[in-house]
Design brief:
The chain has 7 helices and 6 strands; from the N terminus they run βαβββαβαβαααα. It has a 6-stranded mixed β-sheet with strand order 2-3-1-4-5-6. It starts with a strand and ends with a helix.
Length: 190
Amino acid sequence: MKTDIILCGVGGQGILSIATIIGEAAMNENLYIKQAEVHGMSQRGGDVQSNLRISSDPIASDLIAKGSADVIISMEPMEALRYLPFLKKDGWIITSSTPFVNIPNYPDMEVIKADLDKLPNVILIDIEQKAKDAGVPRSANVILLGAAQKALGIEYKKLEEAISRVFARKGEAIVEANIKALAIGKEAQK
């Protein structure tokens, strides 16, 4: 088993929380894991990207080469396209459909959607609206993780268990909200 994942978005969207949950699930399965994080700006609104590599065999490097990522999980649709050169031809993009417009020349969403529509394996999901509708507005990132579950090759139950461990110190209500969010995302899988 080997899965190379690029997680991307902007600061404050919960990309690193997704990485923590995936990493916890992988380590609990005795898999090898390497992670590299890149923060454009540490404050909210700056580019955040993480390379996450999971394997049943030892991993030499924490960086993902161009053309070799199995999955791009993006909290922001333009960011998904930014990392497209790293995606395998048959790789998956799981992205929020809600743009985070933080630059004056942000591309038109129809152009972004047209570019995503050209790709073979894309899940485009309005995680923000789904999170609000379900009463878990702070768990939109975990909805995206739920939508990515099959592409990641990690059992759904293992992600649930990881959420319970990662958020345990924040209390049962936070754990339950995030497990609910994971289930909402699972429903969006192809």
